[in-house]
Amino acid sequence: MNHPTTVVAIPARLESKRLPRKLLADVGGKPLLQRVLERCLEAQHPAAVVLCTDSEELRDKASQWALPRPVPVLMTPASCSSGSERLACALPELLEVAGSNDPAHCWVLNVQGDQPFVDPMIIDAMAERCREARSDVLTPVYRLPAEKIHNPAVVKCLLAHDGRCLTFSRSALPHVRDVPPEQWHAHAPYWGHVGIYGYRAEVLAQWEALPASPLEAIEKLEQLKLLEAGIAIGSFPVEADSLSVDTAEQLEEARAIAAQLR
């Protein structure tokens, strides 16, 4: 049996709304995005690592960084409203880079470009899971510590007993009735979402045809578009989250981590 091809695709927008130009912010002597690319290149299973961006500046910077091997850069429209839409726009080129002409037999691993310490082992674990996936979309989840349950910057995932993702939210899920919120962690498991998705390429091929998602617009979580369209998302557990840099405070946290790694 032939195993599906996997390709890591990193959607990158330079002018993010919450922290503009964060992808070029210095983190321990390197631009944040360079650290993401380096980590992704450490993964062993994907056929390629690709950067997808609408920024000519990011394209030019990436070509100058001393990476273990060159990373192809695919230019995408500035109008893309989410990372997944950006990858959908670049899908024909992604399939070409992956050496695949079959969207049903190729997986695109979407690694968000603001995770400077993304674990290559999680990327490889996802590539392995794609071989026997029962759903067309996969994502890693981790057990949330009590202090993160009510933090709206931390995305939560509500899981079914078989690991299917029932929904995602910035609010704590589930709500524990008649119990003070600070005690909820003692009554139910809470799962956080790691910012990586695995898409069977044919899901991205139909992205433009998916209906608009009111939930996605409200929560600003692109995975809700899939769930509202009836596309199941499977999950698998990992030990810990990978820091996503969305705020100035998280950027300082990333710098502190980088200083410890020196």
The gist of it:
The chain has helices at 32-41, 56-64, 83-89, 91-98, 120-129, 201-205, 214-219, 223-228, 248-261; strands at residues 5-12, 26-27, 30-31, 48-53, 73-75, 106-111, 137-143, 156-159, 165-169, 191-193, 196-200, 234-237. With 262 residues, the protein is an alpha/beta fold.
Which labels suit this protein?
single chain, 262 residues, alpha/beta, ten-stranded mixed sheet, two-stranded antiparallel sheet, 9 helices, 12 strands, 29% helix, globular
What does this structure look like?
The protein has 262 residues and is an alpha/beta fold. Helix content is 29%, strand content 21%. The chain is built from 9 helices and 12 strands. It has helices spanning 32-41, 56-64, 83-89, 91-98, 120-129, 201-205, 214-219, 223-228, 248-261; strands at residues 5-12, 26-27, 30-31, 48-53, 73-75, 106-111, 137-143, 156-159, 165-169, 191-193, 196-200, 234-237. The strands form 2 sheets. Strands 1, 4, 5, 6, 7, 8, 9, 10, 11 and 12 form a 10-stranded mixed sheet that branches. Strands 2-3 form a two-stranded antiparallel ribbon. A hairpin with a 5-residue loop joins strand 8 and strand 9 (165-169). The longest helix has 14 residues, at 248-261. The chain is globular. The model has no long low-confidence stretch (mean pLDDT 93).
